[in-house]
Amino acid sequence: MFELYRVVSSSAGLDRMENVSASDVRSGAKDIQGIPWNTKTTRKEVRQRKLRIYGNRGRNIPQSGETSDKEHKTIKKDCLYDFRWYAGSVRPSFSNSRLRNMVWATSKHDVYLMSNFSAVHWSSLTCTKTEILDFSGHIVPLEKHPKSFPEGFTATRVSTLAVKDKLLLAGGLQGELIVKYLDKPGVSFCFRPTYDDDDDAITTCIEINNSASGALHFIVSYNDSGVREFDMETFQQSNYFHFNLPVNIFPWFMFCFDITKSFSAFSALSIHHSGLSPDGRLLVVVGDDLEGMLVDSRNGMAVSSLSGHVDYSYASAWHPDGQTFATGNEDGTCRIWDIRNLSKSVTVLKGTFGPIVSIRYTSDGRYMAMAEHEDFVHIFDVKSGYVVEQEIDFFGEISGVSFSPDTESLFIGVKSSAWNGLLEFGRRHNNSYLDAMI
């Protein structure tokens, strides 16, 4: 991976800890990943060297990072989530450099993630890892459904994951879709699109939602420009739309209008992410264009363009209030927008050195997590006007980030050649000082 990890491994030693607690970090012997820093090579020195070397590497638009530096918001540092635990026995993974939906918290103690070829469950209560499904072998559905692949799949390389309630869905780099109920043995459904030229499409995103009627369904996006909606009860495809553009992440929500006409303006746009407002009326769309777009979901017409980013965008998220939303970009910034005035973004938040690839709000809207491609996750206090920030600093690429539904926990998957693991943080409250005494 990065050459500085060899420096860390050789000078700090390979005496890594499988797990790291808050008390271990307070002792000063290890950092939150269990790296045993010494006087020969300090953590600060390695971090500074990496910051100097990284620069604009990997950006689509040269010097887009420097361009975005001119208008970002001034931040006050604080601690909003306290470090709890580092599970070094967990090995987070991902298969695509821009698809990082591999970590899903279903409670403050339960998190599901990809680890090599397996989907695993980690319990922070018992500190145990349980394999849920091994994708390296041959997976065959146990139930019979129309359009299902009864022969199943072999050696699926998972590109995206979604977990909600008792349901786990995985998509693959060759268009695979695998559905498993967590409270049932085996796999219930397998699916893959078919093409005349035998080409395969990458499954880029899966979203589990409730339909307007309240029924559970899931939306699957492919980079062949196709979006499919499935009914959860029957696993039957209820809607299918094809676009004249590659779809990277497109969790569609309503199939109530002519997509071809509504999105003719996007014919040259590769969509990386889109998000539906809480009231279901507006959709933010970002991708391989300097401008994003806000769309009226009732008729598919563009409400406004989103001008300000200087590179391509990869992430978006709505605040629960439905008035504001965020977009994350290769230029290293996250912009906050207000639907009441879209002439420009109301806030510009700057990362440390990498593109912003994931954004998550807590369910109560108090905090927002902004994940860079690697090494840094930023938590902002929304109530302060995004002025107060906590920067979480580690070494490794991010496989995913997820707040628990009750907002009490934050999980970060870290993939590294030597120091990978699952980071867990807990929301700080007024009585958090009591935790330090335990």
TrEMBL record:
Q: Which Pfam families match?
A: WD40 (PF00400)
Each WD repeat occupies one of these ranges, namely: 306-347
The UniProt record lists the keyword Lipid biosynthesis: no
Give the transmembrane region(s).
none
Keywords linked to the UniProt accession: WD repeat
- Keyword Oxidoreductase listed? The answer is no
PANTHER family (alphabetical): WD REPEAT PROTEIN (AFU_ORTHOLOGUE AFUA_8G05640)-RELATED, WD-40 REPEAT FAMILY PROTEIN
- Please state what the protein is called: WD-40 repeat family protein
Q: Which organism is it from?
A: Solanum tuberosum (Potato)
